[in-house]
Every structure is written in C-alpha cells, then in structure tokens.
Fold:
Amino acid sequence: MRKTSIFFVVLMAVVMGSCNKQRVTHRTLQKEVDKINAQCPIKGLMGDVTSVGIEGNALVYNIELTTNLLRIDKLKSNTDVMKESVIYDVLSNPDGLKSILASNCDLKFNYKSGSDVMSVLVKAEELRKASDMIKDPEFLARLRLETMVKTTRLQMPMQVDELTLMKDMTIEGKKVCYFYELDNNAITAEMLRNDMAGFKENIKGALNINDPSVAKFVESIAENNMSLCYRYEFPLEKDTVEIDIDLAELKSLILKP
Structure:
C-alpha cells in the first residue's frame, strides 16, 4: 500500500481541479481521477483513501478509517470539528490552497467504518474565507493543533488496554497533556516512579513516526514549540505521576530515520 499524507492526494487532484480555469472537458477530468484511483488505497492521516470521484463541482474522497483513535459514531455528531481539521490542513499548504481557490471546486470527504459512513463537505467559499489565516502561520499552526486535540477528545474516555483508561487531553500553556487513569490494583504510583525512565522510553516508542496520524500530531506539537505531557492518575492512592517529553525529544523523534 502506498503511504502518504491525505493531502498529497488533494494536491494531485487539485491539478485536475483547475479544469474550470483551463476549460478542460469532464472526460479529461475523469482521466485524472482514474490516475489517482490507480494508486489507491493510499494511507492517509486518519485512514486509507480507497477511491476518489467527482460529484458535481465537488472532488470526493472515500476514506476507510483505520486508526483506533477515531470512532465514527462520535465524529458524526461533531462534523464541525472534522470540517475545521480539513480546512486547516488545506491551509497549511499554500500552493494547494491556491490551486483549489483558482478552480473554485468543493471538497467532500466520505469517512467509512464498517457499514457506517459520515460525510464532510467543505465549500470553496469556506476555504476562500479562511484563506486569510495563511498570512499568520503561527496562528494557523496553533489552530491546527487545537483542532487535533479537539478531534481526539471526541473519542474519550477510551480504554487503551486492560490497565489504562485515557480520560482527557488538553493544552495547558506550552504543554499538550494526556490524562490517564491506571488500574491501581495492578500498578502503583511508586512502581511507576521507580521506573520513570523505562516508562518514558515506552511512550517514545509508541510515538511511531511511521504512522501518519501520530507523525502529524508530533510535528504539530513541535511546530508550536510545545512539549508533551502524560499524567497518570492512581485513584486508590489519590496520587498522580507526570512524565514529560520535552521539545528537543519530540524533534529528535521527527528527525529519526
């Protein structure tokens, strides 16, 4: 399976999206779509792009959700957050944005999980109104990170494994913080404190840069000059242990071959 960011596909498709500007025929447009479909499935940030199509003035992406961090039932009632995510990702690539705005085409994303499907439509006019944000890259980077956090929070609480419950996620100053509750019958605060280095290495190992969604998240935190914090709560002891992955460590993960 070909691996890439979903918006690599968008940028390829944007070339054909300029059909309105170049007055090419629908037949030519379909040929370009066929070229992209020949590369599918393509690994994206939230799942596999299984096909691309055309519906009226919209370029349509069909995506099979593969990450266990996204539950479609939660996303369905929060399409505004998903739309923000799409818009900020498009805005992060000025060349792609320029082509989309020139073509005046809409973007539609169909997210599928099993037999369940939800759709997000971003109108060309919505992108045009949001395009002023690219004049302030730092502001856009912050909005993009905040949207990632909001999307992840929609899934919580989430049972990570038999010992670990992911309860929440927030941005606190210059930290992105995860909040976990551990099974206090199986592990104590003292046990964690006695092996802080080992736990930290396990966390860094889980930040697998080969996973596009994780890589994008780590890069976004680093782009905002923040650190990553893991807070583990021990309910029976009423104790909390915090493990921090600082900015330098995050950047080393990004640069890791």
Q: What stands out?
A: The first strand starts at residue 2 and ends at 3.
